[in-house]
Specification:
- This protein is α/β, with parallel strands linked by helices.
- It has ten helices and 18 strands.
- The chain has three domains: 1-155, Spo0b-associated Gtp-binding Protein, Chain: A, CATH 2.70.210.12; 160-328, 3-Layer(aba) Sandwich (Rossmann fold), CATH 3.40.50.300; 343-422, GMP Synthetase, Chain A, domain 3, CATH 3.30.300.
- Helices cover 23% and strands 22% of the residues.
- Strands 10-11-9-12-13-14 form a six-stranded mixed sheet, with helices on both faces. A five-stranded mixed sheet has the order 3-1-8-5-6, with no helix packed on it.
- A hairpin with a 2-residue loop joins strand 15 (357-361) and strand 16 (364-368).
- The radius of gyration is 32 Å and the shape is elongated.
- The structure holds guanosine-5'-triphosphate and magnesium ion.
- Magnesium ion binds next to helix 2.
- Magnesium ion binds at residues 170-171, 182, 190-191.
Length: 425
């Protein structure tokens, strides 16, 4: 099954929590803090695998979650990091964030890309000792791993894309110039999914050709197989437009030519501006006048023109050489530029993750927020210094400001998750 779109969830591992522990040894009194750091959460890494040609696997498995880092331990032992999760995709896969549509990565090269970064591990209490704070009873909680819902979209990589009406001989052409063996038959929409073929030119030169399902008038409105498959020629350096010049199906080649160009334009302005070669096929069945009329029209419009018969292979060699010459002068296969978050966006997302809500009920201020859970976990409420650290967190995240805004006074009760305390200034 050929699948070129999928929606999946990816989540990196959370960092492990730092440990609170004190050195203990026989005959040694009151050792220093020795709580180790939490391990880093595993990343989610995307990797190009050329054995894959569709995104079908992602229809069956839709969640990819890397393991968390382990918590730190006594005796300065750091927690083990979570293993990275490697997700293999076909070459040419675009990864987009669902919520914003921004492009996270274009997996077109051999370079692996980290899509979700694992959370950093929290520092153990061994790091918090100082001359004034000799017994730090707190450690930092691990950070959460990044998480995205993403769409995967495959846009094949080919130098040349074949476009044209159904049954004009696109698949026949690719079958005679490359080793690709697509289905060929005398009916419309024989080709249902894109096919790539490697075309050798002489000894050391080659290019990749893509055959896609035929287009018809209204393809951009979803008629026929629609124009969705055009996405697979979007990266192409050159469009080779195949037209049946013999008119065996009772159509007019000039009309066909214009209709397809109109559909290209409806799909994307960018694609319609791509360099285009026009190939009159089925010349073995056409009269010299038919060929001449079409040629005149096309050449006048400024396109390169070729006449071939894909079935008899007449003219196909010349066409292959001309394509190779042409693409030598064209820019490389298009890569899409990823759109990383700006500093401002990053900041906004971070503050989002530190969101909290305060409600006042029966004389108690209830504070709720997901991030508070991990902070509470790392604090020892019986310890003065640890409490001070907690106070600082409440201040820096704006919780104290908000409480004061709501009219809290000294001695009022504040409840954070299950922990209750009296408010002091
Ligand atoms: N006489 C003649 N017939 C041809 C030529 N090229 C292709 N055909 C025939 O035209 C029919 C359609 O060929 P395909 O290669 O399947 O056409 P296609 O453009 O890939 O069609 P779709 O996949 O349906 O879009 C087949 O019966 C071919 O044998 C040619 O140069 N001359
Ligand atoms: Mg075909």
């Amino acid at each position: 099954m050929f699948v070129d779109k999928a929606k999946i969830l990816i989540r990196a591992g959370n960092g492990g929590n730092g440990a609170v522990s004190f050195h203990r040894e026989k005959y040694v009194a009151a050792g220093g803090p020795d709580g180790g750091d939490g391990g880093k959460g595993g990343d989610v890494i995307f990797h190009v695998d050329d054995n894959l040609s569709t995104l079908v696997d992602f229809h069956y498995k839709r969640k990819f979650i890397a393991p968390d880092g382990d918590n730190g331990d006594r005796r300065e032992r750091s927690g083990r990091g979570g293993k990275d999760l490697v997700v293999s995709v076909p070459r040419g896969t675009l990864v987009r964030e669902v919520s914003t549509g921004r492009l996270i990565a274009d997996l077109s090269t051999d370079e692996d890309v980290i899509i979700c970064k694992g959370g950093k591990g929290g520092a153990g209490n061994q790091h918090f000792a100082s001359a004034t704070k000799q017994i730090p009873r707190y450690a930092k909680a691990g950070k959460k791993g990044e998480e995205y819902e993403v769409t995967l979209e495959l846009k094949l990589l080919a130098d040349v894309g074949l476009v044209g009406f159904p049954n004009v001989g696109k698949s026949t052409l690719i079958s005679v110039v490359s080793a690709a063996k697509p289905k060929i038959a005398n009916y419309h929409f024989t080709t249902l999914t894109p096919v790539l073929g490697m075309v050798s030119v002489g000894q050391n030169n080659s290019f990749v050709m893509a055959d896609i399902p035929g287009l018809i008038e209204g393809a951009s409105d979803g008629i026929g197989l629609g124009h969705d498959f055009l996405r697979h020629v979007e990266r192409c350096r050159l469009i080779v437009h195949i037209v049946d010049v013999s008119g065996v199906e009772g159509r007019n080649p000039i009309e066909d030519f214009n209709i397809i160009n109109h559909e290209l334009q409806n799909f994307s302005e960018d694609l319609s501006m791509r360099p285009q070669m026009v190939v009159a096929n089925k010349c073995d069945m056409a009269t010299p006048e038919q060929i001449a009329d079409f040629k005149e029209y096309v050449v006048e419009k400024g396109f390169d023109f070729f006449e071939i018969s894909a079935v008899t292979t007449s003219g196909t060699k010349e066409l292959v050489f001309a394509i190779a010459d042409k693409i030598a002068s064209l820019p490389p296969i298009k890569e899409f530029e990823s759109q990383p978050l700006t500093a401002q966006e990053r900041f906004e997302r971070e503050s989002q993750s530190r969101r909290f809500e305060i409600t006042f009920e029966d004389g108690i201020y209830f504070v709720e927020g997901e991030f508070l859970e991990s902070i509470l976990m790392s604090v020892d409420m019986d310890d003065y210094e640890s409490l001070q650290y907690f106070q600082r967190v409440l201040r820096s995240t704006g919780i104290i400001d908000k409480l004061e805004e709501m009219g809290i006074v000294e001695g009022d009760t504040v409840s954070i998750l299950d922990f209750e305390f009296d408010f002091v200034k």
